[in-house]
Design a protein that fits this description.
heterodimer; A: about 290 residues; alpha/beta; eight-stranded mixed sheet; about 35% helix; globular; B: about 600 residues; Pyruvate-ferredoxin Oxidoreductase, domain 3; Rossmann fold; 19 helices; about 20% strand
């Protein structure tokens, strides 16, 4: 057995919600028998951006905010990998917010887990896009990424969990990975993951979360109804959890790659097909 | 036009009008016929950054031999709009012939035209509307006049029309052929009868040639090199690369993804390259600026991606359709921190093809960013070249590990310290492996580290690549007389103009040589050495500050031997401009030379 890196111990503060996310992700990967060499874990910048160092995988630490373009490129190049993007709310909704819109629109076969704590922990507590009005003097209305996702017709899987409720978090992580593995495209899972040091919301969130998974008559396949319900719950000061929306649309890679070839990453390119396609292309210039 | 006809050796034609007048179609059909007569062609476009309208031009040079530039001696100027005459009159001389649309009245002189220039007014637009009720047929009418003037045979024109317009349906073909006939009658009325053309132009059997731009050649090179993912954002003048790859890359088993911006494009490219897929993106200055953080990431995290910069006029949005070479500093020095990189500078479409393949090999083997330094002229002008010899293609994937090779190692470290600085690499998905890649400083396993000893070792590891790759980097070519005391250095679209300047100077008895540098970074010793050896080196470049010359001086070049020839007005240089500059600087009088 070839020795490689030894997963390091997390550097998070005791009580950080991200522990729960790491545990759920490792648990879900094991439950679904995804071996370490098939796991490509791509993490953003911020406290959550060190998650890949704490598990067995091929890991990549991106530039700030660029998780989604990176995983899109990885998945198109090698759809045989289980590609998971992880990051925080500053990474995913502020500096990388533009990419989120386009990722929903594209629906690449990746799972994207956002650890939302409403603050910039690593830079000591500035307001993030999901910080409520008033936090650190913020005069802006907070962003609702779930409603943003619902508003984009290409989105196919939107869920929210809470690291204080590990059983549901594990189940939704498994469902997210399964959605992607079955060719459903992008699974977006936001996890409410409190920052105990700069924005300790455990007590507040414990009372304001609301589980749509157990709501009578909630239909996660009805986009318009889901949007309306999210809006109502928001007006009531509640934080909806559960599988909020799931729809069907082929994944980006299935629509983009040429089926007659192995995945781009796995082709033997050392001997170009000189008499075939290379020559066809050359002949196209001979006019 | 005289009756003693000569065989056609060098013909330069400008066709100009309002955007949408069909100037380019005229040039393309003309190029097609002249290629059939065994000549090589080079075409250039002068367009504005708008979809339709404004005065635009297409320019053709047909030459018996290789010339990758337009001459300063314009034989024929065709103007569909009288405003075009004022814009391009400065490029004409007393031997030029002007065919213009006289629908709005005849002109005699003025408009900035040289004295005694021959003017042929033809009511192109009026006849197009009269016969076909549509103005757009004026370019087909004009073609007959142009063809008769230079000596094309009516049947060759007809054949070429059939080839070109046949694809657009029977009706389009019929109208265009009828327009050609109308043009022939107008030509007859002006004394441009069959057989009275300026040149003897016979269809000749010629070896097959490719008609290709630098952008297309770079895209083709990428595909042949095993490039399988391209991510990009449209930006003039790089977009033809994406357009070609959208059409062809899937046939090679690859994929093209248009991103939402350049930040996304470079990071998609990173995501792809991480999986061990050969990956490229293309852009120009503003896009490179946006990609800069990702480029530093390639250097730090040791990921190989090829980045084409089809340079255009800057700074900022600049003049989007005009040529410049003002990103040299950006490519060589841009980015936060110290990291290794390669900048390659092809001068011809053939070099765009082969240097892109070299670039793909270097990017993968040494795991760093490789820039292809092109410019609008090289990127978009069309040249006739000999068919590329695909048997010369070599693929080198570096120290890439498969599962068996990985299993034989005791330990696999993504950032293993090695002799060359480049580590062996097991792509994600390789059984038995795991690895961490990061833009933070890291230890050999890829775990984040700020340990000072490790830091020094890692900086040295990355820097070592710049030395170890040197034997593999493309060397300069020397053209002309190697002992000459007048030398030239220039890249990209300067190539064709400098070569012609060397020939024009030789005709005057002045020897010169051209040191064509192909690797800008890391700069090889050969280029500063050339400026030490040759006492008068003219560094020709399209920017205001002499970025290439300064790069050479920074590497030990002789500042006192270097003279700058700079251009940044958006107009391509001509060989005669360079010759004049050299004669003046060297204080050579025309009558002193043979």
């Amino acid at each position: 057995m070839t020795k490689t890196y030894t997963p390091s111990r997390p550097i998070w503060c005791a009580g950080c919600g991200d522990f729960g996310v790491l545990q759920a992700l490792v648990g879900a990967m094991e439950e679904l028998n995804i071996p370490p060499h098939k796991r490509m874990i791509v993490a953003g910048i911020g406290c959550s951006g060190s998650l890949q160092n704490n598990m067995s995988c091929y890991g990549y630490h991106t530039l700030h905010g660029r998780v989604l373009p990176t995983v899109t490129g990885s998945k198109l190049a090698n759809p045989e990998l289980t590609v998971v993007g992880v990051g925080g709310d500053g990474d995913g909704y502020a500096i990388g917010g533009g990419h989120l819109v386009h990722a929903f629109k594209r629906n690449p076969g990746i799972t994207y887990i956002v650890m939302n704590n409403g603050t910039y922990g690593l830079t000591k507590g500035q307001a993030s896009p999901t910080a409520p009005t008033g936090y650190q003097g913020s005069v802006e209305e907070d962003l609702d990424p779930v409603m943003l996702g619902l508003s984009i017709p290409g989105s196919t899987f939107i869920a929210r969990a809470y690291s204080g409720q590990p059983a549901q978090l594990l189940r939704l992580t498994i469902e997210a990975l399964q959605h992607t593995a079955s060719g459903g495209g992008m699974a977006y899972l936001e996890v409410l993951s409190p920052c105990v040091t700069y924005n300790d919301t455990y007590r507040e969130w414990r009372t304001s979360v609301y589980d749509v998974d157990v709501e009578d008559g909630y239909d996660p396949t009805n986009r318009a109804a889901a949007f309306t319900r999210m809006h109502e719950l928001r007006e009531d000061g509640r934080l909806p959890l559960g599988l909020i929306y799931t729809g069907k649309r082929p994944a980006l890679e299935a629509l983009s790659l040429n089926d007659n070839f192995p995945p781009p990453a796995l082709q033997d390119i050392t001997k170009p097909d000189l008499s075939g396609v290379c020559n066809d292309a050359l002949q196209s210039f001979i006019k | 036009m005289s009756d003693n006809k000569q065989p056609l050796q060098d013909l330069n034609v400008i066709v100009a009008g309002q955007g949408g007048d069909g100037s380019l179609t005229v040039i393309n059909v003309l190029a097609d016929i002249l290629r059939g007569a065994g000549l090589r062609v080079y075409t250039e476009r002068d367009v504005l950054s708008r979809i339709k309208g404004g005065i635009t031009a297409a320019t053709l040079r047909a030459y018996d031999g290789e010339r990758l530039c337009i001459s300063s001696d314009i034989d024929l100027f065709v103007a569909f709009d009288q405003a075009a005459i004022a814009k391009y009159a400065f490029r004409l001389n007393e031997k030029s012939v002007v065919i213009y649309d006289s629908s709005n009245g005849e002109i005699s002189d003025g408009h900035g035209l040289p004295d005694n220039v021959r003017l042929i007014g033809v009511p192109l637009s009026r006849y197009a509307v009269k016969h076909f009720r549509r103005d757009i047929y004026k370019n087909s009418i004009s073609f007959a006049v142009i063809g008769r003037l230079i000596g094309l045979k009516d049947e060759d024109m007809k054949k070429s029309f059939e080839k070109r317009f046949g694809r657009r349906g029977a009706q389009a073909l019929k109208y265009n052929l009828d327009a050609l006939q109308v043009g022939c009658s107008l030509a007859d009325e002006r004394g441009l009868e069959i057989g009275k053309g300026r040149f003897e132009i016979e269809s000749a059997h010629s070896e097959p040639h490719m008609l290709i731009t630098g952008n297309e050649a770079a895209a083709f090179g990428f595909a042949v090199a095993g490039g399988r993912l391209y991510a990009g954002y449209p930006i003039t003048p790089s977009t033809d690369i994406m357009d070609w790859l959208i059409k062809w890359l899937p046939k090679f088993g690859g994929v093209v993804k248009q991103a939402e911006d350049e930040l996304s494009a470079i990071n998609m490219a990173i995501g792809s390259a991480l999986t061990g897929t050969r990956t490229m993106t293309a852009t120009c200055g503003p896009g490179i600026a946006l990609m800069q953080e990702g480029i530093g990431q390639l250097g730090m995290a040791e990921i190989g991606v090829v980045i084409v910069d089809a340079q255009r006029s800057g700074p900022s949005t600049g003049m989007p359709t005009k040529p410049e070479q003002s990103d040299i500093n950006l490519l060589c020095y841009g980015g936060a921190g110290d990291f290794p990189r390669v900048v390659l500078a092809p001068g011809t479409p053939e070099e765009c093809f082969f240097l892109t393949i070299d670039g793909c090999n270097l990017a993968e083997k040494y795991q760093l960013p490789v820039f292809m330094c092109l410019d609008q002229g090289l990127s978009q002008n069309t040249a006739t070249i000999d068919p590329l010899d695909l048997s010369q293609v070599v693929i080198d994937r570096g120290d890439r590990l498969d599962a068996d090779q990985l299993a034989k190692l005791d330990v696999y470290k993504r950032y293993n310290f090695t002799e060359s600085g480049a580590s062996n690499f097991a792509p994600p998905g390789t059984p038995g492996g795991m690895g961490l890649v990061t833009g933070n400083e890291h230890d050999e396993f890829g775990l984040v580290s700020t340990d000072p000893v490790n830091r020094n070792n890692m900086v040295a590891k990355r820097a070592k690549k710049m030395e170890s790759m040197k034997p593999e980097l493309p060397k300069a070519s020397t053209h002309g007389v190697e002992t000459a005391e007048i030398g030239f250095v220039g890249i990209g679209m300067c190539y064709g103009v400098i070569l012609e300047a060397v020939d024009l100077l030789a005709e005057k008895g002045v020897h010169s040589q051209y040191h064509q540098v192909k690797t800008l970074w890391p700069m090889l010793d050969e280029t500063p050495a050339f400026t030490q050896r040759c006492p008068n080196v003219f560094v020709v470049e399209y920017n205001a500050t002499g970025q290439l010359a300064k790069l050479i001086v920074a590497h030990g070049g002789s500042e006192s031997n270097i003279h700058n020839i700079l251009r940044y007005d958006g107009i391509p240089m001509q060989a005669a401009d360079i010759v004049n500059d050299v004669m003046k600087k060297m204080n050579i009088k025309e009558d002193e030379v043979a």
